[in-house]
Amino acid sequence: MNSVHVAAGKPYEVLIERGLIARSGETLKAALGNRTCAAAILTDDTVDALYGEAVEASFARSGFRVCRFAIPHGETHKNIATWAQMLDFLADGHITRTDAVVALGGGVVGDMAGFAAASYLRGVGFMQIPTTLLAMVDSSVGGKTGVNLSAGKNQVGAFYQPVVVLCDPDTLQTLPPDTLADGVAESIKYGVLGDAALFELLCGAKWQGEMERVIATCVAAKAKLVAEDERDTGSRQLLNLGHTLGHGIEKCSHFSISHGHAVAVGMVYAARLAQRLGLCGADVRERIEEALKANNLPVSAPYDAEALCSAALSDKKRAGGQIVFVLPHAIGACELHRMDVADLPRLVRLAVEE
Ligand code: NAD
Ligand code: GLY
Predict the structure, then answer these.
(1) Ligand showing the shortest atom-to-Cα distance for residue 147
(2) Which of 16, 153, 169, 271 has fewest C-beta within 10 Å?
(3) From the CA of 107, how far away is ligand 1's center (Å)?
(4) Is it the case that residue 195 has pLDDT exceeding 80?
């Protein structure tokens, strides 16, 4: 088994092993110090149909009292109304402060269930069982939880770390190819940020045979930044490579373009901006485009600079009169660049226009 330690204020392990989902109950019991309690499994309808019963059975076998609630799948349900339904479910199920919420699903479920765990009774135990590649390599690790507002992505939430994260790569076998590709986009992001060897691996055809290694490598990269900067005031912001304009693309598409696909295009735009600001050559953008295309990911989106600029203005990465762009200087080396919001229209045009 691969195990990555996350040295957050409240430290925990990310466990990665094929078939591990069948041992989810005993995994939480061990993480709680050989204690059982009530476990409220929060999932979505698609994941519930595939894995809900098996996970519930595992918790019951390990001695937990279990209840399970499925929300409709999809980013459009990542909102206050669905989060409130989760809270009502926890209250109706008599979940108390010594009990636990189990997030079973992709990043949408993980972010919302995490926020429910953070806010219900001012905080109950929380386990992540990510079932998409994106959730395994990114969203289940680091404790960012939340929901969207109509004004923008993840605008309400909390930092709330899980007690343990369980990744079973076998669950990725049921993912639609486009959803798997979302996770590849985030994995390529780690390559561009600081791991040229990972980037090269993901450009080739053989990486799917090394899924556990890819997940562990990405999680270790994220764990390092989370340990350095848990509250996201400094180096953790590097993880936002491709996100400033990526979130704008998601918003402009009314979420018909998924997070991972939007981040893919956002990385191309970041590389074009870096090139035009003289921080790197055209080869960086070209190599990112090649890696994305090799994994059936997009390299452009049908929104003009004006639309993306106004979406970026409501992004929460804006702080006062400044907005942070993560820009590549090379494959494997990126830096934070704080830009004046007043300069945003010019910068977005440089990023987007070919
Ligand atoms: P998602 O949760 O919507 O899952 C994508 C789709 O795959 C859903 O329809 C889901 O039902 C389905 N699915 C999930 N697991 C499956 C499986 N094993 N087999 C078949 N179908 C399955 O999307 P996502 O890409 O996992 O996550 C995107 C979300 O994560 C966004 O809301 C984004 O903002 C958030 N995010 C959060 C962080 C963070 O640090 N908290 C980081 C990155 C992204
Ligand atoms: N996904 C960005 C972060 O966790 O900081």
Answers:
(1) 1
(2) 169
(3) 4
(4) yes
Output the pTM of the full model. Answer: 0.96
Q: Which atom of ligand 2 is nearest to the CA of 138?
A: 1
- Ligand 2 contacts CB of residue 142 (under 6 A): yes
Residue 138 beta carbon below 6 angstroms from any ligand 2 atom: yes
Query: What are 229-247's pLDDT values in tens digits?
Result: 999 999 999 999 999 899 9
Distance from C-alpha of 136 to C-alpha of 10, rounded to nearest angstrom:
19
Please give the Cα distance from 130 to 34 (Å, whole number). 22
Token pair of 142 as six digits: 């680091």
Which tokens hold the place of 329? 């200087």
C-alpha 224/C-alpha 6 separation (Å) is 8
Q: Is 285's C-beta closer than 6 angstroms to any atom of ligand 1?
A: no
Mean pLDDT of 287-293: 97
Q: Are strands 164-167 and 2-6 parallel, antiparallel or unpaired?
A: unpaired
Residue 111 Cβ inside 6 Å of ligand 1? The answer reads yes
| First CA to last CA distance, the chain | 45
* Cα 65 to averaged position of ligand 2 atoms, centre (Å): 32
The rounded mean pLDDT for the chain is 96
Q: Which residues lie below 8 Å from residue 94, measured CB to CB, with a gap of 6+?
A: 38
